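[Solved] Which block belongs to which protein?

Original post:
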Amino acid sequence: MNQKVSTEVIQINISGSDKPGMTSALTDILAQYGAFILDIGQANIHQTLSLGILFKTTSDVSGDILKDLLFKAYELDINIKFTPIAPDEYEAWVARQGKNRHIITLLGRQLTARQISAVTGIVYGQGLNIDAIRRLTGRVPLQQEDRALKSCIEMSVRGTPADRSLMQKHFIDLSNDLGIDISLQADDVYRRARRLICFDMDSTLIETEVIDELAERAGVGAEVRAITESAMRGEIDFTESFTRRIAMLEGLDASVLQEVAENLPITEGLDRLMTVLKRIGLKTAILSGGFTYFGEWLKRRYGFDYVYANELEIEDGKLTGRYVGDIVDGKRKAELLRLLAQVENVDIRQTIAVGDGANDLPMLSIAGLGIAFHAKPKVKENARQSLSTIGLDGILYFLGLKDSHID
């Protein structure tokens, strides 16, 4: 009597020193017996390979497949492990795929075991499962300048958090305590299709507040800085603070604008960020509560597509202490973000907004990806994402880009 042939699902896990042609040799054996590969994944850490293959075959040839794989593993001097998978277990696993997936990005000057352990502990506590981990930054040399150093890994997790708000709070607390940025994003089509990015200017694209620089030249630096800091913390209305500060600049020679522009301290990572953003086709905009003179200067230097800021009134070569047109405040920034999305025919969920102050929160809250950059505590607490450990090019990792793809 012929033995009944049944379907078998088998997982093989291979580990050992990486050698050219290893994956080809193993999958060739499966091909010879007509096996169907259900899933495959491979990682390489310091020339050590870890390969997993899940395949379907039939009971009449499964023994021969395992025997040939064992011989090939011996020949290649690698370790191989076989695990049979029950059909109902496999079907349940398939049913879970593609549902409620998230991406967690860990970013800092360097990543330690303590930081990774703390993050994965929160993931586990929320009932989520880590499907994959990949490094986005290049391999780190043992000796490297601290300012240039950056390290980033990305985790793909599956499941529904038991309490997403609490999870986000734990991540914020970890960020503050352990000096790491942690981003939690839904793994959806919009994350992979960002098309418009809008930046605040002062203390975001440049490492200063231009109005403070002008105030120093006008001899009222201390008074203006105090109002600026209060406004950025959200303690006073932006429009009121702006009007009060600009009035103190009355009589300042307009030639000072060029001198300040030529000496602006550019934020770390801006050159690299703009190079990559233009290469991958994102539209870029400056939406600033600062001044158009400096926004236009940055536009010429870095190729921004749009600039919206405040216009200083100048008469007889002197600042009048007044402005022209409407103030670009927090509400106006959000309106401009929506307008640019319409102009570029972009879904609002495909947009990114980046800023540091309380007046940036409206646009951060409506963008598909809102990033508080080196922001005040109040802003970080109210933004969905924050970046505080490295420069602006850290945004590229929030988009899932790898150093090996963009440098």
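(Second protein starts here: sequence line, then its structure tokens.)
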Amino acid sequence: MSQSEVRQKSRILSALLSLAAYSIFLISVLMVVVTLAQVVFRYVIAAPLPWSEELARYCFVWIVFLGGAIGLSRGIHLGVDLFVNLLPDRFRPGLEALSNAFIAVFAATVVYASYPVINMNMLQRSPALGVQMSWIYIAIPISMCLIFLICLERIVAILRASREQKG
């Protein structure tokens, strides 16, 4: 893979992550507005909205899954690095590449396993909103595809840095 191909991929991934971050912002605003409306309708007007809790829950699902990919891209997930810190510096890039490979394999497995679930839920509708449940579950493979791409980009960067150090 040439340097320009990696750079292009990096721009595409950056654009996808920016779209995910913007989506999280919009979904968060929607969730807050719907929750506030539910409080007003329940306690002020005494006529609760039957769909608001469900919409807020589904918004939260999307925020969590997209946020997981954003968190991975920014390196803000919790990690235990006691073992890594005990290793000599020369082994750390290999361990980081291996770790990213495991995460990528896990993400790819989840994407593969989520297709039957999404297909099965195409016919099922949510109780209050009447939305196809597949629209809720599709957050999982979308976020896992982002996670896979993030890990792939990191592995390429580690391999490139290793090649540059040797050469």
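Accepted answer:
You had them paired correctly. Confirming on the second one: DSSP finds six helices and no strands in the chain.
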